[in-house]
Amino acid sequence: MTFWSRIRSWLDAILRRSRLESEMDAELRFHLEAYAEDLVRGGVPRQEAMRRARIEFGGIERVKEESRDARGTQLLEQLWQDVRHSMRMLRKSPGFTAAAILTLALGIGANTAVFSALNTLLLRPLPVKNAERLTFIVSLREGFDPFGTSLLEYTAYQERSHLFAGWGLAADRSFNLIQQGEPERVQGAAILPDYLSTLGVQPVLGRSFTPEENNPGGPAVALMGYGLWKRRFGSDPHVVGRSLNLDGRNTTVIGILPPTFDLPDAAEIWIPLQTSLDGLPLAERAKHAYEMVARLKPNATLQQGDADLKGIARELEQEFPQLRKGWGVKLISLRQQLLGDLAGQVKTALFALVAAVGFLLFICCANVASLLLARGVSREREIALRQALGADWSRLVRQLLTESLLLALLGGFAGLLLAYAIVPVLSVLNPIETVALADVLRNIRIDGHVLWFVVCVTLVTAVICALTPVVKAAGSSDVAPLMKEGGQRGSTGTGGRRWLATLVVAEIAIAMPLLAGSGLMIQSFRRLQRIDLGFRPENLLTMHLDLSAIKYREFQQRISFVERVVERVKNLPGVVSAGTTTNLPLTLSISYDAVFTVEGHPPVNPSDVPITAHRQISREYLQTLGVTLVQGRLLNQQDRAKSLPVVVISEELARQGWPGEDPIGKRVKGLVAGRTMPWLTVVGVVKDIKEDRFNFRINRPAWYLPYEQSENTQPLDLVVKAKGDPSSLTAAIVDAVRSVDRDQPVSNVTTMKDHVAGVLITDRFSAVLMGTLAALGLTLAIIGVYGVMAYSVSRQTGEMGLRVALGASPSDILKMAMGRGARLVAIGLSVGLVGALMLTRFLSGSLYGMNAHDPLTFGVVCLILAAVALVACYIPARRAMLVDPMVALRYE
Amino acid sequence: MDKQMDLLQGTLDMLILKAVSLGPLHGYGVLLRIQQISKDRLEIQQGSLYPALYRLEHQGWIASEWGESENKRKAKYYRLTAAGKRRLQTESEKWNRMADLIEGILGTTAEEV
Fold this sequence. Notes:
The complex is a heterodimer of chains A (892) and B (113). Chain A is of the alpha+beta class and 892 residues long. Chain A has 30 helices and 22 strands.
């Protein structure tokens, strides 16, 4: 009761100040008038009565002041006083204020920018229900090589695991959508109806699939994405129920899915899978061609689900040894999959960045603290005096806190402005290789969460900055020596000196892991960039051609399409050569592999399943790509549909298949359960080509088969080598393709250079950012060290002068001043080194070809830091050495 | 009579609580009632009444409400809250104990020591 009334009156005081004021006026006026009336009744003349009432009442203003205090508004009044006082102090030293605000703005701005990336990638809600319970299932070959899921796994997991509340299955498809002329290639998916219900997605218009529609031979129906509906149909609600030409088949649109939803893999059209899961041959059911999602039950964790599925995968391995040998499984969160982060590297990179900006902020705080300290010392006497005169200790602390809070708020505001400038740059640097939900996950911006973050960081910053002067003030509670000090410049007391030393050590110790971490990441990125791709991406243009399954029913039709397209494109002016493949190197979408067996060399370990990247190529493809032939020949005119089946292999395949032997003329073949595959004769060996994006860091076997020698329905990628800038040829090439088939959609037109650059996007993002942050951190730390050293030397001018007067040589003085600095630098370095060694371990997963404790990186970082820090000590020490003893002493 | 604030500080609060315990009063009424019960032997600086009233209200011992005075004017009336009642009780007991004690001390003669 008492407590609440106090709170209420406090709130009243804050919120209804003016009302309370007028009420108080009215109350006091009533008192005066009532008293005056009584006096009049007692015979005093009216005018005289009012005057006497006032006199006897006492000073009205003083009464009001005391009344306000009694009501508990005191705290606010004092706060306002403190704020005004602080603002006066800040205005009085504009240089200090600007330096402090800029430093804080840098620290807070960098933190805000990185947090907004983190917020976008890891925290922002996705257009699915309860995204944090949704998981994605990755099939793993040999424990590391990620694949899609198979129907076999889908049924087994669904039947045997009880930790999941729902399952969903989808397969990537793409469709030729012909709508009023222009054909368009539309990305889509074939799904089981429970895919959408598991994700918790419902059509905004129309309805979802019924189970009957999913039966084999069911009706041709489709759901349409919001974006496609808006773009191609002007958001016409009558599209629902209308028929579309999808791959030449009339398909009825039954619903529109909500905006931004495009799972899996940027789909815009969804059709029912219409496959009988049990009726298919076993080999078909074992194909890893699906994307599987599952919703964890509320009490189940990701780890439990992962362990459960791993157990079931082991059972499958025993039940179907010929199909499942070497196959495992991994459960990751759906969000992680959407970030294209199967190995968890994006998370590592982001947290490295968060740590880096955190360290940067600490350095900024240390700098501001040292600025406050340096300035605070001149106020030491003021504070000590105020304490001696009975100022409340908590009031003094509040005053100092107000000052640094004010600085932090200004810094935070400037930092927010800075972040508004940095965030678009981050967005352009594009940290992730996402396919689906690009609108959500690529749109790095400052939203409400980020603003809250800024507020929190600002407050924390204020407290950290205030800590130093507060502790300092606490230490100087003994007034006597301060009061006795005659001049302005006494030497700093031991307490102060210890604080200065702590700041120097802290700045260096914090800068060390920041520099080491970014050094490692930059090194790793440079090594990744120098990886031999095995081909020359210069002047290459690529585009994706997906042939309609209905129009190109016969394989012969596909062969002649390829031949005619290559022929026409090759003869365009400005084109050097052209070729097609079934998968570009380093593609993000499904990449085809084959299990292979070598004639006369069955795998030593029967559980090994040798797998190679599988590419079917037109004759001049490898020449166009610019590969290096090591042995034998590339494909040529002799390799026809009916001639001897041949293959060109990569060095890695040669190494695995025929260690220490000449592979030319040897035979190898693919293994497909239930089918007899022909033996392929090796005619050439090429240097390893980086085909596999997800295993970019290692070499995997690859083989290249003549397109016409084995029948397939895979989409094609056209690769064209130009004499100059390849993108200028785009229109001519698309025309050439359309002259072969005017309905043929062309998609994903890009230069090979851009395509390759996309592979290292995460690494580049981290390297660039970490490098920038480290450079900033180093600069700030050194400015801080310099500032503190210069300050402490200048405080000792008198002492130095005295020593010189007593016969110390300038070099003695230099040694003395340097010695102190060097000792602090050494302590800072060793503390920082220990910290860095402990912290960089967390990076080891994302470093390529180097140890997280790489001695060279650590050595170089130590040297740089030590050298720069010593220079920062030397400059003020030298100034001390040159001091004229007479001037120094007189100054005192 | 001594009007020193420090001396009156605790006492004034107690007197106000006592005054409003006899029925709701406006500020001027509190003054009149105290003078009335003390039979005008106690003089109170009028202005000092209000900070005390606000303090007591802030502490939750009295509550206020706007009402109409005897001569049909708007006035702020104070009444005792439940917490205020308890407070008045403990204060009076404390005061009585203290008064007995002081009286006992002052009444001590040389022989009794």
